[in-house]
Write a structure and sequence with these properties.
There is one protein chain. With 183 residues, the chain is mainly α. Helices cover 67% and strands 3% of the residues. The longest helix has 26 residues. The protein has one domain. It has a two-stranded antiparallel ribbon.
Length: 183
């Protein structure tokens, strides 16, 4: 992967992070550019040495951005007694524009992290799919390429993953929070 391609991936990730963070403009003191730039700088040299494909670089950047955002939120919550909930739209943030389901459910990003850990214990691919879509802003086609699966598989697993997230994040509405699965 050349320098120009890395810059393109960076710009796409920055725009996606900006859309995500701008929904919560009053609650965030971290800027999208700072978040993604820090993540990008952490993996850039490693990526160049390992001759990653564009898809692999996107996945690495999404993972680094997720880790940076999670650490930031944990520090913020620890700074203020009791912290504050950082909320984002589940369906809006977990999908590209035009793919969102009706409704605008809100979730705490730390609760999302706990849900991802729960999902990863049962289904690592589904957890990775969520991470790539949410933190990387990747399309179903891009996720399929990274995971080495078909787009139809990604679409079906994405639907099941969103349902499982809803059950984990709102257990009162779903007495049986068993993981839905299509496979």
């Amino acid at each position: 992967m050349n320098e120009r391609e890395m810059e393109e991936v960076f710009e796409n990730a920055r725009r996606f992070a900006h859309r995500l963070l701008s929904k919560e403009c009053g609650k965030w003191s971290i800027e999208a550019t700072v978040l993604v730039n820090d993540s990008y700088l952490r993996i850039r040299k490693w990526a160049a040495k390992n001759d990653l494909t564009r898809a692999q670089f996107q996945a690495a950047l999404a993972t680094a951005t997720r880790n940076r955002l999670r650490d930031y939120i944990r520090r913020q919550k620890a700074t203020v007694h009791g912290g504050h909930l950082v909320r984002v739209g589940l369906d809006e943030s977990l999908t590209r524009p035009g793919l969102a389901d009706p409704g605008n459910e809100l979730l705490d990003l730390l609760a999302l992290e706990q849900a991802l850990e729960t999902i990863a214990r049962s289904n690592k691919l589904q957890a990775e799919l969520i991470m790539l879509r949410f933190y990387g802003g990747l399309t179903e086609v891009e996720v399929a390429e990274i995971l080495g699966r078909s787009v139809r598989w990604v679409q079906a697993e994405w639907a099941a993953a969103r349902e499982w997230l809803r059950r984990l994040l709102d257990p009162g509405s779903y007495p049986d929070a068993a993981p839905p699965s299509v496979a």
